[in-house]
């Protein structure tokens, strides 16, 4: 978790953000949003929205009323209470890469990811001192059959780590099953209804749609007052207008519609205003995620969420590169720094992704994790007190002296180094230093070899196994 | 040149910065600063400073009075007036790597740099649309004899580019010779005295010294009202205290002492408050420049300069890595973004450096240059007007539509790509994409092959040659 001492980026003036808000409300009333779930549309209708076929027109007053109910800040509880996190305010919590169907490491070609990879990345996340959240589609376990995939992922997340958890959003049934599994881990439904323990990612379909599967999963999580990230992944020039301000307006309609639904179901349900929107290179049709346009979208998204006093999600260590090379380094740092600086409270994709959202890399995970440490340090700012300003020491050493033997130096000596990114050592002779990716490759293998999962209550483990077996039938 | 729409980072509260200021003034009066030039000490003495041997004690009133004379903003004139730059305000001007004694490219080992490298990097800087300044010790031409090295560098800077110029600070004689060469290029001393045309870099010796060579070069530049960057490169734990706030205080004494000297010589001389200070890894004694501590020093330095209303210099695309690999990418982006965001008006080392300040890399230059473009774009922020907010287009496309065929998309289509960092294309089949450094290697060779230097008046070229020949005798 990063706690920012430094301020967040405001990219818009007060007038600009009002204009974005008013245009959003106009579109909410004039075009509305297509909600593909009958159940969800009924909820909107019952509360005064106008429905024409699948289109839901939401009056601005209704939006204003509902988003006021969203908590500014909330705690997600982990099975190890020391790993609880607070979402909101100056905090930025970190989750690893999410949803990639491929995996690669330094020595292997890109291949389809499997359950072993899922477990490995859960262990690396468990080992990380930066990553706060595991579970969900950390990486796609392609070798697990669909009907139990969400459950097997949940099981691994609980077994190999004791951090906060994400759960499935793939329709009502799976959402409900995830909640039931969480109730096994956390000691019953009553506890869950009072404590956020499972956060899920609800994606809209741009432009201006939310599908049935997502709407209904959202409704389940809201029923149990579990946190939902409502996020848009719109792409300029294809599923969003080509200009960034317009893309922000359009995603604002989508995200707010989802948030309104959550509050209609259960007022005060914790939600996070989310975005993974980016620009498209129209020459190729590819996402161009390593661009400053993406970083500017982060700034805009986070400020709009602040305007509504809703915690926000976006960003990550994102790159278009296929390898953990220089391009990957520059782009990931640009996006990650911009994301934290934007004021996002929740960063998905904080470690491991290459090739926009397509591939999880073991080396990149290790590198990004270290970047999380550096950026955490950066946002802590500087301490200015007697001891740190050290007037006496400066006067004592004086002109032309040396500080190396001073007690003040000894007292403040710190190990600046983490092993991968932060090295300033010549490993061997000139030009023979192993490159960053190869150092990371050695490192992650050691971590996996040495990792000891946190203890899990035997009874819980058995019950969970039994529950999952019942789904397999 | 980057023009920031986004605000600068304030890392200190008002009280904190006052504390830093007052402690600086205490040290200025109690320890003073060792000025190793007799001439410079006399100037201080004549104006009311107290001198004891080489130590100069500067009363806080004198500091306050002199720094008020420094211009907040000034223009540096290039021989091509279209390349003039304004230093100050929301502007950040960019100069390439500076002072490296080594050079490397992708195919060669690190080796001592020579005059051919100097010319090559001048051409690459001339070609760049981001770099504003050439000349000075862009890279050390080790094969040129010392007594004309400054002159040959000046000649190459004028011959292969028409951008703003840096000049030598290696003592009074060479400083004067640089001014004389500038007067040949710019049409006489009278023009020069009215127009800043040559900026130089004056380094203090930490802790709390300025050597004779630097003091006297500074005095020559001030005599002709040419801009000087007064900069400290102190290293925590060795030549500065271990804590960052104290290191900032100590460098503040050094930098302000140099700035006071410049104003005593010639009130209103344009100066830039500079720093290349960083932290040391006390395990190895190496600079650890790719650390967040360095980036935080940038924040602090720039804010202190703003407190005095003096333009500031710091930062760059700095890394500890020996190669343009992932480490290099992450660290350079961290430092460069932090530097611009800090509000620095002048960034030396914006392109090319590896291994802290030791090695210029052809590939890194190309990569960093592209990063300059991306970061320039980022700091321009977003446009929010009718056209960019595009309400009609959003309403027209509606739920489930596609924006690709819209005229609005066509009108705003832009080529997002520059060739090296920004690619999102699979070059060949999976895993066969050439890495960033290898793409940059191909690219810089093409640039050098195709580069056509800007025209230079024949008479000026001849006169310059004659002048340099006279120095060789």
Produce a short descriptive summary.
The first copy, chain A, is an alpha/beta fold.
Please give the oligomerization state of what you see. Answer: homodimer
Mean pLDDT score of chain A, rounded?
95
Looking at the structure, the CATH topology of the domain at 2-12 and 67-379 in chain A is TIM Barrel
Based on the structure given, which CATH architecture of the domain at 2-12 and 67-379 in chain A is correct? Alpha-Beta Barrel
Q: Let me know the largest β-sheet of chain A.
A: 6 strands, parallel
Structural class of chain A: alpha/beta
Q: How far apart are the first and last residues' alpha carbons of chain A, in Å?
A: 40 Å
State the helical fraction of chain A: 40-55%
Work out the strand percent of chain A: 5-15%
Low-confidence stretches of chain A: none
At the first level of CATH, what is the class of the domain at 2-12 and 67-379 in chain A?
Answer: Alpha Beta
Write down how many β-strands of chain A occur, each being a DSSP E stretch of 2 or more residues: 22
Order of the strands making up the biggest sheet of chain A: 10-11-12-14-16-19
Looking at CATH, the homologous superfamily of the domain at 2-12 and 67-379 in chain A is Trimethylamine methyltransferase-like
**Shape category of chain A:** globular
